[in-house]
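To assess whether ligand presence alters the predicted conformation, the chain was also submitted together with coenzyme A. Input:
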Amino acid sequence: MKYSSEYQEEYILTSGEIIELRLVRPEDKPAFVSGLELCSPLTIYNRFMGAKPRFSESDLKYLTEADPADHVAIVGFRESDLVAVGRAIRYARRPDAADFGLIVADCCQRQGIGAFLLKRLAEALTERDIRYMCGEMFSTNSAMFRVVDDMPYITDWVLDGSVASFEIDLSSPKLG
Ligand SMILES: CC(C)(COP(=O)(O)OP(=O)(O)OC[C@H]1O[C@@H](n2cnc3c(N)ncnc32)[C@H](O)[C@@H]1OP(=O)(O)O)[C@@H](O)C(=O)NCCC(=O)NCCS
Protein backbone atom coordinates (compact mmCIF):
# COMPACT_ATOMS: atom_id res chain seq x y z
CA MET A 1 0.00 0.00 0.00
CA LYS A 2 1.48 3.36 -1.05
CA TYR A 3 -0.36 5.52 1.49
CA SER A 4 0.96 3.94 4.68
CA SER A 5 3.30 5.14 7.40
CA GLU A 6 6.12 4.85 4.81
CA TYR A 7 4.52 7.37 2.47
CA GLN A 8 6.51 10.56 2.01
CA GLU A 9 6.82 12.98 -0.87
CA GLU A 10 7.58 16.60 -1.66
CA TYR A 11 5.33 19.10 -3.33
CA ILE A 12 6.85 22.35 -4.62
CA LEU A 13 4.60 25.39 -4.38
CA THR A 14 4.62 27.91 -7.22
CA SER A 15 6.65 30.12 -4.83
CA GLY A 16 9.37 27.45 -4.88
CA GLU A 17 8.84 26.48 -1.23
CA ILE A 18 8.90 22.76 -0.46
CA ILE A 19 6.01 21.04 1.29
CA GLU A 20 6.75 17.64 2.83
CA LEU A 21 3.77 15.33 2.65
CA ARG A 22 3.14 12.22 4.76
CA LEU A 23 0.39 10.58 6.80
CA VAL A 24 -0.46 12.19 10.12
CA ARG A 25 1.30 10.99 13.29
CA PRO A 26 0.37 11.25 16.99
CA GLU A 27 3.30 13.61 17.57
CA ASP A 28 1.75 16.16 15.19
CA LYS A 29 -0.59 17.49 17.91
CA PRO A 30 1.40 20.69 18.60
CA ALA A 31 1.62 21.35 14.86
CA PHE A 32 -2.17 21.19 14.60
CA VAL A 33 -2.46 23.77 17.39
CA SER A 34 0.01 26.17 15.77
CA GLY A 35 -1.24 25.38 12.25
CA LEU A 36 -4.66 26.73 13.14
CA GLU A 37 -2.99 30.06 13.91
CA LEU A 38 -1.66 30.20 10.33
CA CYS A 39 -5.23 30.13 9.00
CA SER A 40 -7.48 33.16 8.63
CA PRO A 41 -10.96 33.13 10.18
CA LEU A 42 -12.43 32.72 6.68
CA THR A 43 -10.29 29.67 5.91
CA ILE A 44 -11.26 28.11 9.26
CA TYR A 45 -14.92 28.98 8.74
CA ASN A 46 -14.94 27.40 5.28
CA ARG A 47 -13.22 24.23 6.49
CA PHE A 48 -15.24 23.62 9.64
CA MET A 49 -18.40 25.39 8.42
CA GLY A 50 -18.36 27.42 11.58
CA ALA A 51 -15.92 29.04 13.98
CA LYS A 52 -13.29 26.69 15.42
CA PRO A 53 -11.26 28.80 17.84
CA ARG A 54 -9.11 25.95 19.17
CA PHE A 55 -8.80 22.18 19.25
CA SER A 56 -9.66 20.31 22.45
CA GLU A 57 -7.50 17.41 23.68
CA SER A 58 -10.04 14.95 22.30
CA ASP A 59 -10.13 16.76 18.93
CA LEU A 60 -6.34 16.46 18.75
CA LYS A 61 -6.42 12.78 19.62
CA TYR A 62 -9.04 12.15 16.96
CA LEU A 63 -7.18 14.19 14.35
CA THR A 64 -3.75 12.62 14.89
CA GLU A 65 -4.34 9.07 16.14
CA ALA A 66 -6.49 7.83 13.33
CA ASP A 67 -6.61 4.19 12.20
CA PRO A 68 -5.24 4.61 8.66
CA ALA A 69 -7.40 1.78 7.34
CA ASP A 70 -10.51 3.93 7.72
CA HIS A 71 -9.22 7.43 8.39
CA VAL A 72 -6.60 8.85 6.06
CA ALA A 73 -5.05 12.21 6.86
CA ILE A 74 -2.26 13.53 4.65
CA VAL A 75 -0.41 16.41 6.25
CA GLY A 76 1.82 18.95 4.52
CA PHE A 77 4.66 20.68 6.37
CA ARG A 78 6.59 23.75 5.25
CA GLU A 79 9.62 23.23 7.50
CA SER A 80 7.99 22.86 10.94
CA ASP A 81 4.73 24.58 9.99
CA LEU A 82 1.69 22.44 9.28
CA VAL A 83 0.23 24.22 6.25
CA ALA A 84 -2.05 21.67 4.60
CA VAL A 85 -4.26 18.77 5.65
CA GLY A 86 -6.41 16.51 3.50
CA ARG A 87 -8.53 14.11 5.50
CA ALA A 88 -11.01 11.38 4.57
CA ILE A 89 -12.98 9.21 6.98
CA ARG A 90 -14.85 6.09 5.91
CA TYR A 91 -18.53 6.10 6.86
CA ALA A 92 -19.29 3.32 9.34
CA ARG A 93 -22.61 2.56 7.63
CA ARG A 94 -21.38 2.98 4.09
CA PRO A 95 -17.92 1.41 3.84
CA ASP A 96 -17.46 2.25 0.15
CA ALA A 97 -17.70 6.00 0.87
CA ALA A 98 -15.76 8.54 2.92
CA ASP A 99 -16.34 12.06 4.10
CA PHE A 100 -13.44 14.32 3.28
CA GLY A 101 -12.17 17.81 3.98
CA LEU A 102 -9.24 19.92 2.90
CA ILE A 103 -7.51 22.92 4.40
CA VAL A 104 -4.52 24.92 3.20
CA ALA A 105 -3.09 27.75 5.31
CA ASP A 106 -3.56 31.15 3.70
CA CYS A 107 0.19 31.60 3.06
CA CYS A 108 0.18 28.57 0.76
CA GLN A 109 -3.19 28.90 -0.98
CA ARG A 110 -3.53 29.21 -4.76
CA GLN A 111 -0.24 27.40 -5.33
CA GLY A 112 -1.63 24.03 -6.34
CA ILE A 113 -1.32 22.11 -3.10
CA GLY A 114 -5.09 21.78 -2.47
CA ALA A 115 -5.71 20.15 -5.86
CA PHE A 116 -2.64 17.95 -5.42
CA LEU A 117 -3.73 16.76 -1.96
CA LEU A 118 -7.20 15.94 -3.24
CA LYS A 119 -5.71 13.73 -5.96
CA ARG A 120 -3.47 11.99 -3.43
CA LEU A 121 -6.42 11.41 -1.10
CA ALA A 122 -8.40 9.94 -3.99
CA GLU A 123 -5.55 7.46 -4.61
CA ALA A 124 -5.37 6.59 -0.90
CA LEU A 125 -9.11 5.91 -0.81
CA THR A 126 -9.02 3.79 -3.96
CA GLU A 127 -6.33 1.67 -2.29
CA ARG A 128 -8.79 1.13 0.57
CA ASP A 129 -11.67 0.13 -1.75
CA ILE A 130 -13.47 3.41 -1.12
CA ARG A 131 -15.28 4.54 -4.27
CA TYR A 132 -17.06 7.73 -3.23
CA MET A 133 -15.52 10.90 -1.75
CA CYS A 134 -18.26 12.96 -0.16
CA GLY A 135 -18.22 16.42 1.31
CA GLU A 136 -20.11 19.56 2.12
CA MET A 137 -19.12 23.17 1.66
CA PHE A 138 -20.66 26.59 1.58
CA SER A 139 -22.05 27.30 -1.87
CA THR A 140 -20.01 30.54 -1.86
CA ASN A 141 -16.74 28.57 -1.58
CA SER A 142 -15.49 29.09 -5.12
CA ALA A 143 -11.99 27.77 -4.31
CA MET A 144 -13.30 24.39 -3.17
CA PHE A 145 -15.79 24.25 -6.00
CA ARG A 146 -12.94 24.72 -8.44
CA VAL A 147 -10.72 22.11 -6.79
CA VAL A 148 -13.48 19.47 -6.81
CA ASP A 149 -14.65 20.36 -10.31
CA ASP A 150 -11.09 19.97 -11.63
CA MET A 151 -11.03 16.32 -10.53
CA PRO A 152 -11.18 13.94 -13.49
CA TYR A 153 -14.21 12.06 -12.09
CA ILE A 154 -17.95 12.48 -12.34
CA THR A 155 -19.29 14.39 -9.34
CA ASP A 156 -22.88 14.70 -8.14
CA TRP A 157 -23.74 18.05 -6.61
CA VAL A 158 -26.75 18.90 -4.45
CA LEU A 159 -27.39 22.53 -3.64
CA ASP A 160 -29.45 23.24 -0.54
CA GLY A 161 -29.52 26.93 0.24
CA SER A 162 -26.11 28.04 1.44
CA VAL A 163 -24.68 24.51 1.51
CA ALA A 164 -23.50 22.40 -1.43
CA SER A 165 -22.99 18.64 -0.96
CA PHE A 166 -21.01 16.62 -3.41
CA GLU A 167 -20.03 13.05 -4.10
CA ILE A 168 -17.07 12.26 -6.33
CA ASP A 169 -17.30 8.82 -7.94
CA LEU A 170 -13.70 7.64 -8.14
CA SER A 171 -14.66 4.80 -10.47
CA SER A 172 -16.29 7.10 -13.07
CA PRO A 173 -13.73 9.09 -15.06
CA LYS A 174 -15.05 12.14 -16.90
CA LEU A 175 -15.24 11.61 -20.64
CA GLY A 176 -13.29 13.82 -22.97
C1 LIG B 1 -10.16 25.05 -0.92
C2 LIG B 1 -8.66 25.05 -0.68
C3 LIG B 1 -8.29 23.76 0.04
C4 LIG B 1 -7.96 25.09 -2.04
O1 LIG B 1 -6.58 24.93 -1.81
P1 LIG B 1 -5.50 25.67 -2.71
O2 LIG B 1 -4.20 25.04 -2.46
O3 LIG B 1 -5.60 27.14 -2.48
O4 LIG B 1 -6.02 25.35 -4.19
P2 LIG B 1 -5.15 25.19 -5.51
O5 LIG B 1 -4.04 26.18 -5.51
O6 LIG B 1 -4.78 23.76 -5.67
O7 LIG B 1 -6.16 25.62 -6.62
C5 LIG B 1 -6.90 24.69 -7.39
C6 LIG B 1 -7.78 25.48 -8.35
O8 LIG B 1 -8.69 26.29 -7.61
C7 LIG B 1 -8.54 27.64 -7.99
N1 LIG B 1 -8.68 28.48 -6.80
C8 LIG B 1 -7.97 28.39 -5.67
N2 LIG B 1 -8.37 29.34 -4.80
C9 LIG B 1 -9.36 30.02 -5.43
C10 LIG B 1 -10.19 31.11 -5.04
N3 LIG B 1 -10.07 31.68 -3.83
N4 LIG B 1 -11.11 31.54 -5.92
C11 LIG B 1 -11.25 30.97 -7.13
N5 LIG B 1 -10.50 29.91 -7.55
C12 LIG B 1 -9.57 29.46 -6.71
C13 LIG B 1 -7.14 27.76 -8.53
O9 LIG B 1 -7.01 28.83 -9.43
C14 LIG B 1 -6.97 26.43 -9.21
O10 LIG B 1 -7.58 26.45 -10.48
P3 LIG B 1 -6.77 26.02 -11.77
O11 LIG B 1 -6.34 24.60 -11.50
O12 LIG B 1 -7.75 26.13 -12.86
O13 LIG B 1 -5.63 26.96 -11.83
C15 LIG B 1 -8.20 26.30 0.13
O14 LIG B 1 -8.66 27.46 -0.51
C16 LIG B 1 -8.68 26.28 1.56
O15 LIG B 1 -8.04 25.73 2.45
N6 LIG B 1 -9.84 26.90 1.82
C17 LIG B 1 -10.38 26.95 3.18
C18 LIG B 1 -10.88 25.60 3.65
C19 LIG B 1 -11.96 25.07 2.74
O16 LIG B 1 -12.72 25.80 2.13
N7 LIG B 1 -12.05 23.73 2.65
C20 LIG B 1 -13.07 23.13 1.83
C21 LIG B 1 -14.18 22.56 2.63
S1 LIG B 1 -13.67 21.07 3.41
